[in-house]
Task: structure prediction
Amino acid sequence: MMQWLSSLRDAVNDAMRQPVARVHAQWLAHSSGQGLVEYSLLLALIVLVVIGIVSVMGHTVSGLWYQRILDRWPT
Result:
């Protein structure tokens, strides 16, 4: 009787472990791309910040250089 109960318990444990192991394996397979997505989002944010800074400061810097060139231009 005990051996039958033990084998039933083992069968139930195996039946429960297989789907969990499958889900865990799929999660591990897909989690490696997670870092790539995070880095690409971070890179996109940095690019947007740089574009914003250049668009705001670009006219100021351009104006300063343009004025310096005009001041030193031989007439």
The radius of gyration is 32 Å. The chain has a mean pLDDT of 79.
